[in-house]
């Protein structure tokens, strides 16, 4: 070798930055190089708000916590950034620039160059100013269509990813147990199989874009006593195992969710945030979950302040870490100095910090945040002039035509026609009386976690950011020749009776009355539905029932339209309305979807994800009740619903026939095969929803009278028929036995093919034979449906 020969060398990079090395090796090396303060810094997040001018984010100040000093925190690092877009109205491009600059600052301030994981809410769309507001999860459930929910979640994920967000705090997999609970709108329904399949589809869509899906709230939040928010959950172990846990199990096993958020609640005296048997024993050791467990906001501090199982912040931190919580959100309270001091004095072993850190850093490695070529510039700002923020304003559209069309499709599939005497579809009415508090309210289609209702209401001088046509607007377009008279009648919850006379006068002059009632979404008492907006009963809020009854007395046909976050008892209207149309906060395309159903442009195909009660005071009840939960002669309270779970009408008729069962017996490790024919016998194209319910007449523990184990949407043209085949594995008949383990028992079963929980069309009696069989989390979860045309 001669001296003038140049030898090219590649500077060696630290092992943790080498993407060609195994993630475990990278993470171990990084942990070995960190100080205790640097380790802890990766385990908490800070609630921030993006700058409206594109500058760095600012910590969000709120009543519950002390101010956060980023300058003091950042030299050690910062694990998480919470809600940079979902705290204040900011142009999306300037929000992305603000996040970019903050990530650069975070990475440059710590000696390992590690950026933060950015979290955002995405329950009904990306919770950012100007982003599409999709229907709420209760509407997802009403579609009985996992595919459309999967596509929606992918669209949400792409928008979040484009501006630099890594993790979405959704979906909510709580199963409704009491419809008085304010957060019913955030749930998918009252049946664990429906919640599991729809929620898993959402997870699959979000994760397909690289966004980390966060399952919440694990577990039992929706089972709170009396439907009160953040209250104890007096459920037994079997209810938790058979009703509340299965959606989470399915979303982890089949959805690939990479994060779980613990619940606020306590069950039998043990808070979820300190429940090692739940967060480690079940979630990780049994189910094999390898992702991160994040705290619900302030949930670790609540171990001291609300639950009383910790004497100080350090004890709360240690209990949560030991149980299996990895990340404190949304600010530094227990995982900061108190935790460091507790390690120093031996109260908390450093090993539990390393365990949580290994999960957090592993996720960062998989997100590319430890790679040497990591860049803070998000895809939507690539190639932009980042030094001139004014040129960025308006560059990013989070509410484009494809999003809005998808939102409209979901809204249309989610509209539920509860009853109809033939008045719908409307035949070119000449005079319409449009009455009710939600008739001209643009935000009546939005849930409490939509940006305008969650954040925008605190900034009344800022435009809402998205186009929200009122039902008055869409009806005028749908019926251009009609004379539409608008009367408010009363407010959503103000109890005002003074406008009812005017509304009745308008009704008497009309050919048809459309009464638009329901909820106003809000937070902590600002609404009639939403987080902290629990209901004492399921009577319509305010004076709305008075208004509805007065309209029914007008002598004109009344079409009752509900824009709501929960089901309500409707009194006389159940029998006396010409039609009832139920929509659960249907998002930006909602009023267009409702107008289409009223005119007949769209054939309704939604089905109830929650039962509609007959009376306002029969809660808590769901269709999943055992025999003792049904109406009886020994109680004067009748829980029978006005409209049962799964119910929904359309503008055609369907005939179900030719049930065939391949074999009436199968072993406890076998399966049954059924087939039926569904024919559209009307003159409109529409979709039927075939629902499969399991009834177990004799079991070793009390079972619900029936439970959903499968479903399929069957679209049919007039006169068209399809042969629907379903394979039913014995595993779906499993339940938690007396010893706490899941079992399939031999014996007779009824498989009910039904249009709803109250409308069984065809029933097959089958028998499981052989020995009792134990099953676990690897069991088969689904009855498999196939469809084929038939003559």
UniProtKB/TrEMBL annotation:
Residues 688-757 form the Fibronectin type III-like domain. Keywords: Hydrolase. One of its GO terms (molecular function) is hydrolase activity. SUPFAM superfamilies: (Trans)glycosidases (SSF51445), Beta-D-glucan exohydrolase, C-terminal domain (SSF52279). SMART domains: Fn3_like. It comes from the Bacteria. Belongs to the glycosyl hydrolase 3 family. This is Glycoside hydrolase family 3 N-terminal domain-containing protein. It comes from Streptomyces marokkonensis. The lineage of its organism: Bacteria, Bacillati, Actinomycetota, Actinomycetes, Kitasatosporales.
């Amino acid at each position: 070798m001669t001296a003038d020969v140049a030898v090219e060398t590649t500077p060696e990079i630290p092992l943790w930055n080498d993407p060609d090395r195994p993630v475990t090796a990278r993470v171990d090396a990084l942990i070995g190089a960190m100080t205790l303060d640097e380790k802890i810094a990766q385990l908490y997040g800070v609630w921030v708000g993006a700058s409206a001018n594109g500058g760095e984010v600012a910590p969000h100040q709120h009543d519950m916590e002390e101010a956060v000093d980023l300058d003091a925190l950042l030299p050690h690092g910062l694990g998480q950034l919470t809600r940079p877009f979902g705290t204040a109205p900011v142009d999306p491009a300037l929000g992305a620039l603000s996040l970019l600059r903050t990530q650069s600052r975070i990475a440059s301030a710590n000696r390992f160059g590690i950026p933060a994981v950015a979290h955002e809410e995405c329950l009904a769309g990306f919770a950012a100013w100007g982003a599409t507001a999709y229907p709420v999860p209760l509407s997802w459930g009403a579609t009985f269509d996992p595919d459309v929910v999967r596509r929606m979640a992918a669209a949400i994920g792409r928008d979040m990813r484009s501006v630099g967000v890594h993790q979405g705090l959704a979906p909510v997999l709580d199963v409704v147990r009491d419809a008085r609970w304010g957060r019913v709108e955030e749930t998918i329904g009252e049946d664990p199989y429906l919640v599991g399949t729809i929620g898993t589809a959402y997870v699959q869509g979000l994760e397909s874009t690289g966004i980390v899906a966060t399952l919440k709230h694990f577990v039992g939040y929706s089972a709170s006593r009396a439907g009160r928010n953040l209250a104890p959950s007096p459920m037994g172990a079997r209810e938790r195992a058979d009703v509340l846990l299965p959606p989470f199990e399915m979303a982890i096993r089949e959805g690939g969710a990479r994060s779980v958020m613990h619940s606020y609640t306590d069950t039998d005296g043990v808070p979820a945030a300190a429940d090692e048997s739940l967060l480690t024993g079940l979630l990780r050791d049994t189910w094999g979950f390898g992702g991160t467990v994040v705290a619900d906001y302030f949930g670790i501090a609540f171990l001291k302040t609300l639950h009383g199982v910790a004497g100080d912040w350090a004890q709360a931190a240690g209990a949560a870490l030991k149980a299996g919580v990895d990340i404190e959100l949304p600010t530094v309270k227990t995982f900061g100095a108190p935790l460091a001091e507790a390690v120093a004095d031996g109260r908390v072993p450093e090993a539990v910090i390393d365990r949580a850190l290994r999960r957090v850093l592993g996720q960062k490695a998989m997100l590319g945040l430890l790679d040497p070529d990591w860049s803070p510039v998000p895809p939507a700002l690539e190639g932009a002039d980042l030094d001139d923020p004014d040129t960025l304003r308006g560059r990013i559209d989070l509410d484009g035509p494809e999003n809005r069309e998808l939102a409209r499709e979901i809204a249309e599939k989610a509209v539920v026609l509860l009853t109809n005497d033939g008045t719908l579809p409307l035949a070119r009415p000449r005079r319409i009386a449009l009455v009710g508090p939600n008739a001209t309210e643009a935000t009546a289609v939005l849930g409490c976690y939509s940006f305008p209702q969650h954040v925008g209401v605190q900034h009344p001088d800022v435009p809402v950011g998205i186009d929200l046509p009122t039902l008055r607007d869409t009806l005028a377009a749908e019926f251009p020749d009609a004379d539409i008279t608008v009367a408010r009648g009363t407010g959503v919850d103000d109890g005002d009776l003074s406008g009812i006379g005017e509304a009745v006068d308008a009704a008497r002059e009309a050919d048809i009355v459309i009464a638009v009632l329901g909820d106003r979404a809000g937070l902590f008492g600002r609404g009639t539905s939403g987080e902290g907006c629990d209901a004492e009963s399921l009577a319509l809020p305010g004076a709305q029932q008075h208004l509805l009854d007065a309209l029914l007395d007008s002598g004109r046909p009344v079409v009752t339209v509900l824009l709501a976050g929960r089901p309500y008892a409707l009194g006389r209207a159940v029998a006396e309305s010409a039609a009832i149309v139920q929509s659960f906060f249907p998002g930006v395309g909602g009023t267009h979807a409702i107008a289409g159903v009223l005119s007949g442009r769209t054939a309704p195909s939604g089905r109830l994800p929650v039962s509609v009660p007959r009376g306002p005071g029969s809660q808590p009840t769901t269709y999943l009740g055992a025999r003792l939960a049904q109406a009886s002669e020994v109680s004067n309270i009748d829980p029978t619903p006005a409209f049962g779970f799964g119910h929904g009408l359309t503008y055609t008729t369907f005939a179900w026939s030719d049930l065939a069962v391949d074999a009436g017996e199968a072993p406890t490790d076998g399966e049954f095969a059924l087939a039926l024919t569904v024919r559209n016998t009307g003159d409109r194209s529409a979709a039927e929803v075939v629902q499969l319910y399991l009834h177990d007449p004799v079991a070793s523990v009390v079972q619900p009278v029936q439970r959903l184990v499968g479903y399929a949407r069957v679209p049919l043209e007039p006169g068209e028929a399809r042969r629907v085949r379903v394979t039913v594995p014995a595993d779906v008949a499993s339940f938690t036995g007396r010893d706490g383990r899941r079992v399939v028992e031999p014996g007779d079963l009824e498989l009910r093919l039904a249009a709803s929980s109250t409308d069984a069309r065809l029933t097959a009696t089958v028998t499981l034979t052989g020995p009792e069989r134990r099953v676990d989390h690897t069991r088969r979860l689904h009855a498999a449906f196939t469809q084929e045309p038939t003559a």
